Amino acid sequence: MRTNDPAFARDRLFSVFGATGFCIRGDREQFAVRANHLQMTGLGLSYCDYAGDVSLDFGETTFIRQIFNIQGSGQHTIDGQTGGIAPGSWTMVLPPGPLRLDLDGRYRQLELRIEFDALLRHLGALIGQEVSRNLVFDDNVDRSPAMSALRRRIFQFATDYNERGTFFSDLAAAEVERMVIMKFLMCHRHSYTQLLLREPLPAGASAVRRVEEFIEANWDKPIDIEAMVAVAKVSARSLFRQFKRDRGYSPADFAKRVRLDRARQMLEQSTERTAVTQVALKCGFQNPGHFARDFRLAFGELPSETLKRSGQEIG
After folding, report:
1. Measured between alpha carbons, how far is 314 from 240 in angstroms, rounded to an integer?
2. For 254-309, which CATH superfamily applies?
3. CA distances from 124 to 27, 41, 117, 198 (A)
4. CB atoms within 10 A of CB 110
5. Which CATH superfamily hosts domain 2-115?
6. What backbone phi and psi angles, to 5 degrees, belong to 300?
7. Which residue of 46, 48, 265, 311 has the lowest C-beta tally within 10 Å?
8. Residue boundaries of the structural domains of the chain
């Protein structure tokens, strides 16, 4: 959406972004809005850019939110409590209750949405037990380096997706979604944080081998934490710890190496005009630059050089 028509903006804010109230507090002649929304399976990402003072209301949702400010200032009100939204900062985790936003002047933000059920599934896999719906996040704003790193990762994903759009593979998108939700749960303090911080039980070498076999057999599918936990018969944290002890890397690192091997095979065995970017996306690498770097570290040459040796042209 990109408009300075309040009526059109109201319709789109209600139908696409889930607003229940919309008010321009200042001069309507100065009003303008630009907004985009990307909805994945359990994760959504919204970008909003407002000119002019506006207020928005949202009703009950099935997801939690966190707002990452880019420019301007405002405030949020939820459960009767009001908090500021300062330039370059982020809010606390906003629960799935009614929300009001009061935004001032030239204002831009990126909003992360995660379905509550997706949080529960991933958290259950991490701690190795079923999680009730009483998951509650701390109402303080976390300023830790881990949160800053999460913010950078979310913004990098937005940039990558904007550059590739519909060419962004389902595999790559699912991998980003899994990574963001897992990091989100580890970064924020909540009612299950103590269970995440406790020493995990040992998993055993056989669990590591079973998961490696599972990943090799399903390399072209998203890494499914719940499926790996079922195969290993231990919690995700126990599995990650055992991988680190036995192999010196994580299951995700192992999956990356398997996919790099598959990508090299595709480049070496290509029998038709091939683009390196197409191979990268097919193998789950959403950023061609990062793919080229990882490929060179693994095999000592760029993917384009491997493709040239196969006698094919680069698209």
Report:
1. 38
2. Homeodomain-like (1.10.10.60)
3. 49, 18, 11, 14
4. 19
5. Jelly Rolls (2.60.120.10)
6. 80, 10
7. 311
8. 2-115, 254-309
- 114, 118, 119, 123 alpha-carbon torsion, rounded to 10°: -150
Identify the residue whose tokens are 């072209």: 220
CA angle 303, 306, 312 (to 5 degrees): 105
Three-state SS annotation for the chain: CEECCHHHHHHHHHHCCCEEEEEECCCHHHCEEEEEEEECCCEEEEEEEEECCEEEEECCCCEEEEEEEEEEEEEEEECCEEEEECCCCECCCECCCCEEEEEEEEEEEEEEEEEHHHHHHHHHHHHCCCCCCCCCECCCCCCCHHHHHHHHHHHHHHHHHHHHHHHCCHHHHHHHHHHHHHHHHHHCCECCHHHHHCCCCCCCHHHHHHHHHHHHHCCCCCCCHHHHHHHHCCCHHHHHHHHHHHHCCCHHHHHHHHHHHHHHHHHHHCCCCECHHHHHHHCCCCCHHHHHHHHHHHHCCCHHHHHHHCCCCEC
d(CA 157, CA 181): 13
Q: Average pLDDT for consecutive 10-residue bins of the chain (315 residues)?
A: 95 93 92 93 94 95 96 93 92 94 94 95 88 88 89 90 76 85 92 88 88 93 86 89 90 92 90 76 84 94 88 51
